Amino acid sequence: MNDHEAPIVSIHGLWTVFGRGKDEVVIHKDLALTVQRGEIVSLVGGSGTGKTVLLRQMLGLEQPAKGEVTVLDQPAARLSRRGAASRVGMLFQQGALFSAFSVMENVAFPLRELKTLPEALVRDAALVKLQMVGLKPADAHKMPADLSGGMIKRVALARALIMDPPLLLLDEPTAGLDPNGSDDFVDLLRSLHQELGLTVVMVTHDLDTLFALSSRVAVLAEKRVLVTGTPGEVVKFKHPFIEHFFLGERGRRAMTPIKDTAPDPDALTPDFHPQSHTESHPDSAADHKEQSQ
Ligand SMILES: Nc1ncnc2c1ncn2[C@@H]1O[C@H](COP(=O)(O)OP(=O)(O)OP(=O)(O)O)[C@@H](O)[C@H]1O
Ligand SMILES: [Mg+2]
Question: Is the distance from CB of 285 to CB of 206 less than 8 angstroms?
Fold first, then answer.
Protein backbone atom coordinates (compact mmCIF):
# COMPACT_ATOMS: atom_id res chain seq x y z
CA MET A 1 0.00 0.00 0.00
CA ASN A 2 1.29 3.44 -0.88
CA ASP A 3 1.32 5.81 2.10
CA HIS A 4 0.67 8.76 -0.17
CA GLU A 5 -2.35 7.18 -1.76
CA ALA A 6 -5.51 9.26 -1.59
CA PRO A 7 -8.19 7.93 0.77
CA ILE A 8 -10.97 5.88 -0.81
CA VAL A 9 -13.60 7.89 1.06
CA SER A 10 -13.02 11.42 2.25
CA ILE A 11 -15.81 13.34 3.95
CA HIS A 12 -15.30 16.85 5.31
CA GLY A 13 -17.68 19.35 6.85
CA LEU A 14 -20.71 17.34 5.78
CA TRP A 15 -24.15 18.66 6.59
CA THR A 16 -27.15 16.55 5.61
CA VAL A 17 -30.45 18.37 5.99
CA PHE A 18 -33.94 17.10 5.16
CA GLY A 19 -37.02 19.30 4.84
CA ARG A 20 -37.29 23.06 4.81
CA GLY A 21 -38.33 25.85 7.13
CA LYS A 22 -39.96 24.58 10.29
CA ASP A 23 -39.79 21.01 8.97
CA GLU A 24 -36.03 21.17 8.59
CA VAL A 25 -34.15 18.30 10.23
CA VAL A 26 -30.38 18.27 10.47
CA ILE A 27 -29.04 14.71 10.27
CA HIS A 28 -25.30 15.35 9.92
CA LYS A 29 -23.60 18.47 11.20
CA ASP A 30 -20.01 19.15 10.20
CA LEU A 31 -19.27 15.43 9.92
CA ALA A 32 -15.84 14.16 8.93
CA LEU A 33 -14.73 10.63 8.03
CA THR A 34 -11.80 9.28 6.06
CA VAL A 35 -11.43 5.69 4.91
CA GLN A 36 -8.12 4.40 3.55
CA ARG A 37 -7.71 1.66 0.97
CA GLY A 38 -8.10 -1.83 2.41
CA GLU A 39 -9.74 -0.78 5.67
CA ILE A 40 -12.93 -2.27 7.08
CA VAL A 41 -14.52 0.62 8.94
CA SER A 42 -17.56 -0.13 11.09
CA LEU A 43 -20.00 2.69 11.58
CA VAL A 44 -21.99 2.44 14.78
CA GLY A 45 -24.59 4.73 16.33
CA GLY A 46 -28.07 4.69 17.82
CA SER A 47 -31.09 4.01 15.66
CA GLY A 48 -32.00 6.98 13.49
CA THR A 49 -28.65 8.74 13.90
CA GLY A 50 -28.04 8.81 10.15
CA LYS A 51 -25.87 5.77 9.43
CA THR A 52 -27.83 4.63 6.38
CA VAL A 53 -28.07 8.23 5.18
CA LEU A 54 -24.27 8.49 5.45
CA LEU A 55 -23.85 5.39 3.25
CA ARG A 56 -26.35 6.94 0.82
CA GLN A 57 -24.18 10.07 0.75
CA MET A 58 -21.20 7.88 -0.22
CA LEU A 59 -23.30 6.40 -3.03
CA GLY A 60 -24.30 9.83 -4.28
CA LEU A 61 -27.97 9.11 -3.49
CA GLU A 62 -28.20 12.08 -1.10
CA GLN A 63 -26.85 15.58 -1.65
CA PRO A 64 -24.73 17.36 0.97
CA ALA A 65 -26.35 20.60 2.13
CA LYS A 66 -22.77 21.69 2.83
CA GLY A 67 -19.39 20.01 2.75
CA GLU A 68 -17.69 17.40 0.61
CA VAL A 69 -18.15 13.68 0.08
CA THR A 70 -15.34 12.39 -2.11
CA VAL A 71 -15.29 8.75 -3.16
CA LEU A 72 -12.43 7.35 -5.23
CA ASP A 73 -11.23 10.87 -6.03
CA GLN A 74 -14.58 12.15 -7.26
CA PRO A 75 -17.48 13.94 -5.59
CA ALA A 76 -19.94 11.15 -4.70
CA ALA A 77 -22.75 13.16 -6.29
CA ARG A 78 -20.96 12.78 -9.61
CA LEU A 79 -21.04 8.97 -9.52
CA SER A 80 -23.10 8.53 -12.63
CA ARG A 81 -25.93 6.04 -12.41
CA ARG A 82 -24.45 4.06 -15.24
CA GLY A 83 -20.96 3.71 -13.86
CA ALA A 84 -21.78 3.68 -10.15
CA ALA A 85 -21.83 -0.09 -9.65
CA SER A 86 -18.28 -0.41 -10.99
CA ARG A 87 -17.04 1.95 -8.28
CA VAL A 88 -19.20 1.27 -5.23
CA GLY A 89 -21.16 -1.86 -4.31
CA MET A 90 -23.91 -1.57 -1.74
CA LEU A 91 -25.59 -4.24 0.36
CA PHE A 92 -28.80 -2.55 1.48
CA GLN A 93 -30.19 -2.90 5.00
CA GLN A 94 -33.26 -4.85 3.85
CA GLY A 95 -31.51 -7.10 1.33
CA ALA A 96 -33.56 -5.31 -1.33
CA LEU A 97 -33.81 -8.06 -3.93
CA PHE A 98 -36.38 -7.61 -6.69
CA SER A 99 -38.98 -10.14 -5.63
CA ALA A 100 -40.26 -10.74 -9.17
CA PHE A 101 -36.76 -11.46 -10.47
CA SER A 102 -34.86 -14.74 -10.16
CA VAL A 103 -31.51 -14.92 -8.37
CA MET A 104 -29.74 -14.73 -11.73
CA GLU A 105 -31.74 -11.70 -12.84
CA ASN A 106 -31.12 -9.95 -9.53
CA VAL A 107 -27.36 -10.51 -9.63
CA ALA A 108 -27.05 -9.62 -13.31
CA PHE A 109 -29.22 -6.51 -13.03
CA PRO A 110 -26.53 -3.76 -12.77
CA LEU A 111 -24.56 -5.30 -15.65
CA ARG A 112 -27.61 -5.87 -17.83
CA GLU A 113 -28.72 -2.28 -17.26
CA LEU A 114 -25.52 -1.07 -18.91
CA LYS A 115 -26.62 -2.78 -22.15
CA THR A 116 -23.01 -3.10 -23.29
CA LEU A 117 -22.35 -6.83 -22.85
CA PRO A 118 -23.84 -9.79 -24.70
CA GLU A 119 -26.32 -11.81 -22.66
CA ALA A 120 -24.04 -14.87 -22.46
CA LEU A 121 -21.29 -12.84 -20.83
CA VAL A 122 -23.71 -11.22 -18.39
CA ARG A 123 -24.91 -14.66 -17.29
CA ASP A 124 -21.37 -16.00 -16.98
CA ALA A 125 -20.38 -13.02 -14.84
CA ALA A 126 -23.42 -13.54 -12.60
CA LEU A 127 -22.60 -17.25 -12.20
CA VAL A 128 -19.02 -16.44 -11.23
CA LYS A 129 -20.27 -14.02 -8.57
CA LEU A 130 -22.80 -16.54 -7.25
CA GLN A 131 -20.02 -19.06 -6.83
CA MET A 132 -17.86 -16.44 -5.15
CA VAL A 133 -20.49 -15.91 -2.44
CA GLY A 134 -20.96 -19.65 -1.90
CA LEU A 135 -24.12 -20.28 -3.95
CA LYS A 136 -24.59 -23.01 -6.55
CA PRO A 137 -25.46 -22.61 -10.23
CA ALA A 138 -28.73 -24.42 -9.40
CA ASP A 139 -29.65 -21.51 -7.11
CA ALA A 140 -29.59 -19.11 -10.06
CA HIS A 141 -33.14 -19.98 -11.08
CA LYS A 142 -34.70 -19.70 -7.63
CA MET A 143 -36.95 -16.80 -6.69
CA PRO A 144 -36.20 -14.60 -3.64
CA ALA A 145 -39.27 -15.97 -1.80
CA ASP A 146 -37.68 -19.45 -1.91
CA LEU A 147 -34.40 -18.39 -0.30
CA SER A 148 -33.25 -18.47 3.32
CA GLY A 149 -32.20 -15.22 5.01
CA GLY A 150 -28.54 -16.12 4.59
CA MET A 151 -29.00 -16.87 0.89
CA ILE A 152 -30.76 -13.53 0.34
CA LYS A 153 -27.77 -11.73 1.87
CA ARG A 154 -25.43 -13.72 -0.39
CA VAL A 155 -27.42 -12.91 -3.52
CA ALA A 156 -27.47 -9.22 -2.55
CA LEU A 157 -23.70 -9.40 -1.99
CA ALA A 158 -23.15 -11.06 -5.38
CA ARG A 159 -25.15 -8.26 -6.98
CA ALA A 160 -23.14 -5.61 -5.11
CA LEU A 161 -19.92 -7.19 -6.42
CA ILE A 162 -21.05 -7.86 -10.00
CA MET A 163 -18.93 -5.04 -11.47
CA ASP A 164 -15.92 -5.60 -9.20
CA PRO A 165 -16.13 -2.32 -7.31
CA PRO A 166 -13.15 -1.46 -5.11
CA LEU A 167 -15.46 -0.07 -2.39
CA LEU A 168 -18.19 -2.10 -0.70
CA LEU A 169 -20.80 -0.54 1.58
CA LEU A 170 -22.67 -2.91 3.89
CA ASP A 171 -25.76 -1.84 5.84
CA GLU A 172 -26.33 -4.28 8.70
CA PRO A 173 -24.93 -7.30 6.82
CA THR A 174 -25.68 -9.83 9.56
CA ALA A 175 -28.96 -8.44 10.93
CA GLY A 176 -31.72 -11.05 10.97
CA LEU A 177 -29.33 -14.00 10.59
CA ASP A 178 -29.07 -16.67 13.28
CA PRO A 179 -25.66 -16.96 15.02
CA ASN A 180 -24.39 -19.67 12.66
CA GLY A 181 -25.60 -17.84 9.57
CA SER A 182 -24.03 -14.67 10.92
CA ASP A 183 -20.66 -16.37 11.55
CA ASP A 184 -20.70 -17.88 8.05
CA PHE A 185 -21.46 -14.50 6.47
CA VAL A 186 -18.68 -12.84 8.49
CA ASP A 187 -16.24 -15.54 7.26
CA LEU A 188 -17.37 -14.90 3.69
CA LEU A 189 -16.91 -11.13 4.04
CA ARG A 190 -13.46 -11.63 5.57
CA SER A 191 -12.27 -13.85 2.74
CA LEU A 192 -13.74 -11.62 0.02
CA HIS A 193 -12.10 -8.59 1.62
CA GLN A 194 -8.74 -10.35 1.47
CA GLU A 195 -9.09 -11.96 -1.94
CA LEU A 196 -10.54 -8.97 -3.74
CA GLY A 197 -8.58 -6.29 -1.87
CA LEU A 198 -11.81 -4.49 -1.02
CA THR A 199 -12.27 -1.40 1.08
CA VAL A 200 -15.37 -1.79 3.23
CA VAL A 201 -17.60 0.60 5.17
CA MET A 202 -20.07 -1.38 7.25
CA VAL A 203 -22.94 -0.28 9.46
CA THR A 204 -23.55 -2.84 12.18
CA HIS A 205 -25.30 -3.15 15.50
CA ASP A 206 -23.82 -6.59 15.97
CA LEU A 207 -20.78 -6.61 18.24
CA ASP A 208 -19.60 -10.06 17.14
CA THR A 209 -19.58 -8.88 13.53
CA LEU A 210 -17.89 -5.64 14.53
CA PHE A 211 -15.09 -7.32 16.47
CA ALA A 212 -14.59 -10.03 13.86
CA LEU A 213 -14.14 -7.68 10.92
CA SER A 214 -13.35 -4.07 11.82
CA SER A 215 -9.95 -2.56 11.35
CA ARG A 216 -11.46 0.65 12.71
CA VAL A 217 -14.71 1.79 14.30
CA ALA A 218 -16.36 5.17 13.73
CA VAL A 219 -19.00 6.24 16.23
CA LEU A 220 -21.81 8.40 14.90
CA ALA A 221 -23.37 10.51 17.66
CA GLU A 222 -24.34 14.14 18.08
CA LYS A 223 -24.82 14.27 14.31
CA ARG A 224 -21.17 13.61 13.53
CA VAL A 225 -18.36 11.10 13.82
CA LEU A 226 -17.53 11.57 17.47
CA VAL A 227 -14.53 9.26 17.63
CA THR A 228 -12.73 6.73 15.47
CA GLY A 229 -10.20 4.10 16.46
CA THR A 230 -9.75 0.40 17.00
CA PRO A 231 -12.56 -1.21 19.01
CA GLY A 232 -10.22 -1.28 22.04
CA GLU A 233 -9.59 2.45 21.72
CA VAL A 234 -13.13 3.54 21.05
CA VAL A 235 -14.51 1.68 24.03
CA LYS A 236 -12.46 3.92 26.34
CA PHE A 237 -14.14 7.06 25.04
CA LYS A 238 -16.55 8.49 27.59
CA HIS A 239 -19.94 8.92 26.01
CA PRO A 240 -23.36 7.51 26.99
CA PHE A 241 -23.88 5.79 23.65
CA ILE A 242 -20.46 4.15 23.67
CA GLU A 243 -20.90 2.93 27.25
CA HIS A 244 -24.31 1.51 26.47
CA PHE A 245 -23.26 -0.03 23.18
CA PHE A 246 -19.99 -1.65 24.20
CA LEU A 247 -20.36 -2.13 27.92
CA GLY A 248 -23.89 -3.49 28.18
CA GLU A 249 -24.16 -7.19 28.86
CA ARG A 250 -23.91 -8.22 25.21
CA GLY A 251 -21.02 -5.84 24.80
CA ARG A 252 -19.07 -7.36 27.67
CA ARG A 253 -19.54 -10.80 26.17
CA ALA A 254 -18.34 -9.73 22.74
CA MET A 255 -15.46 -7.73 24.24
CA THR A 256 -13.93 -10.69 26.07
CA PRO A 257 -11.33 -11.50 23.39
CA ILE A 258 -9.95 -7.94 23.38
CA LYS A 259 -10.24 -7.29 27.11
CA ASP A 260 -6.49 -7.43 27.63
CA THR A 261 -5.63 -5.03 24.85
CA ALA A 262 -4.43 -1.94 26.65
CA PRO A 263 -5.53 0.97 24.48
CA ASP A 264 -3.22 3.87 23.91
CA PRO A 265 -5.20 6.99 24.82
CA ASP A 266 -3.03 9.08 22.49
CA ALA A 267 -4.09 6.93 19.60
CA LEU A 268 -7.65 8.20 19.91
CA THR A 269 -8.77 10.69 17.35
CA PRO A 270 -11.57 12.30 19.27
CA ASP A 271 -13.29 14.89 17.18
CA PHE A 272 -15.13 15.84 20.33
CA HIS A 273 -16.03 19.20 21.78
CA PRO A 274 -16.91 18.79 25.45
CA GLN A 275 -19.05 21.90 25.36
CA SER A 276 -21.32 20.48 22.70
CA HIS A 277 -24.79 19.36 23.59
CA THR A 278 -24.87 15.68 24.53
CA GLU A 279 -27.83 13.71 23.35
CA SER A 280 -28.29 10.25 24.72
CA HIS A 281 -30.10 7.76 22.58
CA PRO A 282 -32.74 5.91 24.53
CA ASP A 283 -33.36 3.66 21.55
CA SER A 284 -29.98 2.06 22.02
CA ALA A 285 -28.22 -0.14 19.55
CA ALA A 286 -28.82 -3.21 21.67
CA ASP A 287 -32.54 -2.54 21.91
CA HIS A 288 -32.72 -1.88 18.22
CA LYS A 289 -31.08 -5.16 17.39
CA GLU A 290 -33.41 -7.12 19.59
CA GLN A 291 -36.38 -5.41 17.91
CA SER A 292 -35.12 -6.05 14.44
CA GLN A 293 -34.84 -9.79 14.94
N1 LIG B 1 -35.33 11.07 2.48
C2 LIG B 1 -35.53 11.43 3.76
N3 LIG B 1 -36.30 12.47 4.07
C4 LIG B 1 -36.49 12.86 5.35
N5 LIG B 1 -35.92 12.25 6.40
C6 LIG B 1 -35.13 11.19 6.15
C7 LIG B 1 -34.89 10.73 4.82
N8 LIG B 1 -34.06 9.65 4.89
C9 LIG B 1 -33.80 9.46 6.20
N10 LIG B 1 -34.44 10.39 6.96
C11 LIG B 1 -34.34 10.51 8.42
O12 LIG B 1 -32.98 10.61 8.76
C13 LIG B 1 -32.75 10.00 10.03
C14 LIG B 1 -31.61 9.03 9.93
O15 LIG B 1 -32.04 7.91 9.18
P16 LIG B 1 -31.12 6.65 8.91
O17 LIG B 1 -31.94 5.71 8.10
O18 LIG B 1 -29.82 7.08 8.34
O19 LIG B 1 -30.90 6.09 10.38
P20 LIG B 1 -29.97 4.88 10.83
O21 LIG B 1 -28.89 5.45 11.67
O22 LIG B 1 -29.57 4.09 9.63
O23 LIG B 1 -30.97 4.05 11.77
P24 LIG B 1 -31.18 2.46 11.92
O25 LIG B 1 -30.10 2.01 12.86
O26 LIG B 1 -32.52 2.35 12.55
O27 LIG B 1 -31.11 1.83 10.58
C28 LIG B 1 -34.08 9.37 10.44
O29 LIG B 1 -34.71 10.24 11.33
C30 LIG B 1 -34.84 9.29 9.14
O31 LIG B 1 -36.22 9.36 9.37
MG1 LIG C 1 -30.08 2.28 8.90
Answer: no
